[in-house]
Amino acid sequence: MCPRKPVLLTALMMLAQSLPAHADPLPPETLVERLTQGGYVLYIRHAQTESDYADQVTADPENCATQRVLSRTGWAQARAIGSAIDSAGIPVAEVLSSQYCRAWQTADLAFGYHEETAALNFEPAEDYSDVQIAAMRDRVAPLVLAEMQDSSNRVIVGHDDPFEALTGIYPEPQGVAYVLQVRDGAIEVLGAIAPDAWPGM
Predict the structure, then answer these.
(1) Whole-number Cα distances in Å, 16 to 54, 73, 134, 162, 195
(2) CB of 123 within 8 A of CB of 135?
(3) Lower Cβ count inside 10 Å, N or C end of the chain?
């Protein structure tokens, strides 16, 4: 028998079940301007890897040798994204990443620090059931909905499938960043910035 979820977490999950995209996705320049004001969540899919295949069934999150890893291009990409964010004057108060090496390495290369959380990990399957999709969504949603400093932003460095479970949007390509806003208890996707489309890059 599954334990009962805390009332607050259950409420957050219910709020996150409807996540509308912005009617007209904002261009990168406008997204960066918004981010400089603080109060947003920036969800970054990890930078480019050496290959692209589903490793979540056999990968050990604590053993990089069992996982897809960043390519040389990915390492440079992560550094460039972090440099662009810094140059734009975007304030970052916290950086969360999954436990997978390609995610926390992207976070560390870009920002110099990170906090790992299993909430951003995959479900161990290639073809997800509705229950597994809901499980990923319900783990990620509280990280987005949690209160933050109005004058700063929260960065989440994660993966494609958990983001799609949360928003219904498949994040492509690797290194893409989505700007999320929490308004009236709902999560809104304002738009995306491709890894090579940061203003000033």
Answers:
(1) 26, 34, 11, 13, 26
(2) yes
(3) N
Dihedral of the alpha carbons of 81, 193, 12, 111, in degrees to the nearest 10: 10
Q: Are strands 177-183 and 92-97 parallel, antiparallel or unpaired?
A: unpaired
Count of CB atoms situated within 10 Å of the CB of 118: 9
Residue 170, class by beta-carbon neighbours within 10 Å (0-12 exposed, 13-18 middle, 19+ buried)? exposed
CA distances from 25 to 58, 103, 161, 169 (A): 36, 25, 21, 13
User: Which is it for strands 115-116 and 92-97: parallel, antiparallel or unpaired?
Assistant: parallel
CA torsion sign for 150, 156, 160, 162 is negative
Residue 153 contacts residue 38 (beta carbons within 8 Å): yes
Phi then psi dihedrals of residue 85, to 5 deg? -65, -40
Helices (H), the chain: 7-15, 28-37, 72-87, 101-111, 130-145, 160-167
CB 36 within 8 A of CB 29: no
Res. 10 pLDDT band, cuts 50 70 90: very low
- Per residue in 136-173, pLDDT (tens digit) is 999 999 999 999 987 999 999 999 999 999 999 999 99
